Amino acid sequence: GAIAGYGPPASAGLVRAAGEVATWVATQVEVADLSFERTRAMEAELRALRAQISPHFIYNSLAAIASFVRTEPERARELLLEFADFTRYALRRGGTFTTVSEELHNVERYLVLEQARFGDRLGINLRIAPEVLPVRVPYLTIQPLVENAVRHGLAPQEGPGHVVLTATDLGTDVEISVEDDGVGAEPEVIRKVLDGQSRSDSVGLGNVDARLRQVYGEDAALVVETAPSAGMKVSFRVPKYSPAADAAP
């Protein structure tokens, strides 16, 4: 494109003004291109995350539901409805953002299904500040962290385990954390997962981290605290109000 300035004399001021306007317009075009590419990258990451939805979780959920069909048919029906709602949300199309409230509803569905399988072995504690519920966050950012805690933290250990999900109001920010008292992991292994250097099946950690950094910058990257036999805590902090989140569908 080109920008032209017209006036009786072709003064240095007119030339300079036209140059400044052209520079500003070019910058805005570049910003728009970057925003478009970032959106495309987020959509690609979401497609990858949906493809990672654990076949083991689907199989185990259906097996747990089947185990109640004869003994507790009403519970089997309720679990089947929870499973349908969970998969409908997880596999939905359109919209890269949602609210903390919607994310937590999906976490609850997931945990109901896992408790049907683990029974008393799985303890859950939710600590949610009501002020954070309407805050918009990238779609599927919380449930994958809870699934990681259950699948990789608690499932491998003998005996009961606990998951604590906390959403804290920090004024202009919201902090989300998921903590378990499971088997933990080597910090170096987690670092490679977050850096994209490992093909570990730690559900969604690298994916969630990448999408948070794409939207909010490096300050929103996942913080992981873990060690072997010491459980794991995964947390992130995002602003309550973000132009990218508020403008997105």
Would you kindly provide a brief summary of this structure?
This protein is an alpha+beta fold. The chain is 51% helix and 17% strand. The protein is built from eight helices and seven strands.
Question: How would you describe what is shown here?
Answer:
This protein is an alpha+beta fold and 249 residues long. The protein has 8 helices and 7 strands, in the order αααβαββαββααββα. A hairpin with a 3-residue loop joins strand 4 (161-169) and strand 5 (173-180). Helix 4 packs parallel to helix 5. It starts with 11 loop residues before the first helix and ends with a helix.
So what's the overall shape? elongated
Give the number of helices: 8
Low-confidence stretches: none
Distance between the termini: 30 Å
Give the averaged pLDDT, no decimals: 83
Strand order of the largest sheet: 2-4-5-7-6
Number of distinct beta strands? 7
Helix content: 40-55%
Q: Structural class from helices and strands? A: alpha+beta
Topology, element by element:
Elements: H1 12-51, H2 55-68, H3 73-90, E1 97-99, H4 100-118, E2 122-128, E3 136-138, H5 143-154, E4 161-169, E5 173-180, H6 187-194, H7 205-216, E6 223-226, E7 232-239, H8 243-247
Parallel strand pairs: 2-4
Antiparallel strand pairs: 1-3, 4-5, 5-7, 6-7
Please name the defining characteristics of this protein.
249 residues, alpha+beta, 5-stranded mixed β-sheet, 51% helix, elongated
